[in-house]
Structures are given as structure tokens and as C-alpha cells.
Design brief:
Homodimer. Belongs to the plant dirigent protein family. The chain is mainly β. The chain contains two helices and nine strands. The chain has one domain: Allene oxide cyclase-like (AOC barrel-like), CATH 2.40.480. The longest helix has 23 residues. The protein is extended.
């Protein structure tokens, strides 16, 4: 006796559900989580202290405007402007201070009432023990405050699975600004 097309479709549908459930069961197996391969060890707290050198104009400009609000926007706080940055991380605030990395990412002017940034940055370390490792932040920077705090949301290399916070202080502000950073990073 031949099967009807409806029975064949139902059988195929049931088999598809069974195979899908089996594949989910196979893919989720707590006993095979590769903790050692992912770099899990004992969690530790690392404090990093460095300066960021922002050059916002001139020949060596490292902060570049890539978008801004329509010309009808008369905001005194540049609301709607977006910049891309590739700035230097240095050991000290002096112009000749040793470079230890770069901060790369985007900053958006995200407040209509004050100068407040949304910062999405990767801090790429290029020297010493942390060479090749990164730390990522994503948060609000209200630059009129003397001390700002931004969340650390991840990292790579020695900072894999990073979390914590960054404290920022404006050290010097003009066409070449220096920001003082203190990172408090939990990582494995």
C-alpha cells in the first residue's frame, strides 16, 4: 500500500524534529567544556595605569570626525557627532613618554544637554607583558566630571573574559589632550 503525500510529509517533519533535538543534546554537553583550552585559571585583579594622548587637530590628528547631525542641529554640545579614534597609550603625560599601546574605536556625542560621549574603544597593548592583548570598554563619559568611570566589557589575549572598570581623569586639555586612565581588570 502506497503512503499518501500527507503521511510522507508528516513522517519527514517528525524525523526532522527528532534529529534537531538530538543535535541540540549533542551540542550542549557540560562535561566537555574546555576550560583549560580557553585559558581559565584562577581569576586575578590587574591594575593598569597609563595616559591617552588625543591629538584632535593638526598634522598628526588621531581623532577624526566621520559623521555629524544635520545642519539644522544647533546643539552647543555637538550632539550627533561621531568620531573615530586611533590614539596613543603612553606611560606618562609627557609628549616624549614611551608608547605602550593604542586606543582604537568610536566616540559618539550622545547627550543633548552636556558634553557626554558614548565610547566604544579597544585598548591594544603593544609592549611588555601585555603585548598583543586587548581590553574593550563601552560606556558613557561625561567629560565635565573630574573623574569618570566606564565599564570594561571584555578583552583578548591575557585579558580574555575581562571585566571591570576604568577610571578617567583629564590631565591636560587643548589640541593635544592627555587623559589619565586607571583600569581595574578581573581576568583569568
Amino acid at each position: 500500500m502506497a503512503k499518501s503525500p500527507q503521511n510522507t510529509t508528516q513522517t519527514l517533519f517528525i524525523l526532522l524534529i527528532i534529529f534537531s533535538l538530538l543535535s541540540l543534546t549533542i551540542a550542549y554537553d557540560d562535561n566537555t567544556f574546555p576550560e583549560k583550552e580557553l585559558g581559565f585559571k584562577r581569576e586575578k585583579l590587574t591594575h593598569l595605569h597609563f595616559y591617552v594622548k588625543d591629538v584632535v587637530s593638526g598634522r598628526n590628528q588621531r581623532v577624526v570626525r566621520v559623521a555629524e547631525a544635520a545642519t539644522t542641529n544647533t546643539s552647543s554640545v555637538s550632539f550627533g557627532m561621531v568620531t573615530v579614534v586611533d590614539v596613543l597609550l603612553t606611560v606618562g603625560p609627557e609628549p616624549s613618554s614611551k608608547q605602550v599601546g593604542r586606543a582604537q574605536g568610536m566616540i559618539a556625542f550622545a547627550s543633548q544637554s552636556e558634553v557626554g560621549f558614548l565610547m566604544a574603544l579597544n585598548y591594544v597593548f603593544t609592549e611588555g607583558k601585555y603585548n598583543g592583548s586587548t581590553i574593550s570598554i563601552l560606556g558613557r563619559n561625561a567629560i565635565n566630571l573630574p573623574v569618570r568611570e566606564l565599564p570594561i566589557v571584555g578583552g583578548s589575549g591575557l585579558f580574555r573574559f575581562a571585566r571591570g572598570y576604568a577610571q578617567l581623569r583629564t590631565y591636560k586639555f587643548n589640541t593635544t589632550s592627555f587623559l589619565e586612565y586607571n583600569f581595574y581588570v578581573l581576568h583569568y
